[in-house]
Amino acid sequence: MSRLAVGLVGWGAIGRTVGTALAAGRVPGAELVRVVDNRPLGDAVAAPQTSVEEALAHCDVLVEAAGAGFVREWGERVLCAGTDLLVASTGALTDDELAKRLLATTPGRVHFTGGAVGGLDLLQAARSMGPLTEVSLTTTKLPGTLEQPWMDEGLLARLRTATAPVEVMAGTARDVPAHFPRSTNVAASVALAVGDLDAVRVRVVADPDATRTRHVIEAHGPFGSYRFEVNHLPDPGNPATSQVVPHAVLRGLAALAHSPGRIL
């Protein structure tokens, strides 16, 4: 069987871990062959650094580890070129029209990683039996990782002086990720599993004592009730990202490379 030729877009907290693992042969059947980044990386990467266009000519799949902007700008072009796209920044899918176009575009296929949260496969299975009547996600992070340019001085002061948990925002999976583009991809992932952005109620909480990033998902439907809680150590280089995220990407690549023993 031929090896899966992987191109990696983005050499940040996620990309470095994914690229290093691929170069070390930690994903049987997959090989890092190209890296795309808007900064000159020199010898820091274990594969040639090229443009997106050149990567498309050499790769079976591109891994997006560069942010939702890449998905919006390049997603359809990647798929039209016949290259698969593995999306880490699922927050891009809060754009309904973009999501529909990506799912409909061929011959390449779009794939999504669950990132920092589990249980999405079970939610998809439950949804296939009938709509879930209530779905909620509460994400808790350190205040500093949640500061955004749109926040007014009052909210920033609350975050910076908090001595107890502070609710920063509440809404649906349609509107919350747009306000926290680097911190709430989980909300979009849950909505993808449920099949409805507006059905997922999201709370974002800042906790000055949070040593780990916490995501709590609760869902109820006619056939059962579900609750998942995960607590992750943040990435030391990018505290807005959990350390587990690049390993979720690697798991996805292993599945695409048909590595045995994977839970599908």
From TrEMBL:
<dbReference type="Pfam" id="PF01958">
    <property type="entry name" value="Asp_DH_C"/>
</dbReference>
<keyword id="KW-0560">Oxidoreductase</keyword>
<comment type="similarity">
    <text>Belongs to the L-aspartate dehydrogenase family.</text>
</comment>
<feature type="domain" description="Aspartate/homoserine dehydrogenase NAD-binding">
    <location>
        <begin position="10"/>
        <end position="104"/>
    </location>
</feature>
<protein>
    <recommendedName>
        <fullName>L-aspartate dehydrogenase</fullName>
        <ecNumber>1.4.1.21</ecNumber>
    </recommendedName>
</protein>
<feature type="binding site">
    <location>
        <position position="185"/>
    </location>
    <ligand>
        <name>NAD(+)</name>
    </ligand>
</feature>
<feature type="active site">
    <location>
        <position position="215"/>
    </location>
</feature>
<dbReference type="InterPro" id="IPR020626">
    <property type="entry name" value="Asp_DH_prok"/>
</dbReference>
<dbReference type="InterPro" id="IPR002811">
    <property type="entry name" value="Asp_DH"/>
</dbReference>
<comment type="pathway">
    <text>Cofactor biosynthesis; NAD(+) biosynthesis; iminoaspartate from L-aspartate (dehydrogenase route): step 1/1.</text>
</comment>
<feature type="domain" description="Aspartate dehydrogenase">
    <location>
        <begin position="163"/>
        <end position="249"/>
    </location>
</feature>
<keyword id="KW-0521">NADP</keyword>
<dbReference type="InterPro" id="IPR011182">
    <property type="entry name" value="L-Asp_DH"/>
</dbReference>
<dbReference type="InterPro" id="IPR005106">
    <property type="entry name" value="Asp/hSer_DH_NAD-bd"/>
</dbReference>
<keyword id="KW-0520">NAD</keyword>
<keyword id="KW-0662">Pyridine nucleotide biosynthesis</keyword>
<feature type="binding site">
    <location>
        <position position="116"/>
    </location>
    <ligand>
        <name>NAD(+)</name>
    </ligand>
</feature>
<dbReference type="InterPro" id="IPR036291">
    <property type="entry name" value="NAD(P)-bd_dom_sf"/>
</dbReference>
<dbReference type="Pfam" id="PF03447">
    <property type="entry name" value="NAD_binding_3"/>
</dbReference>
<comment type="function">
    <text>Specifically catalyzes the NAD or NADP-dependent dehydrogenation of L-aspartate to iminoaspartate.</text>
</comment>
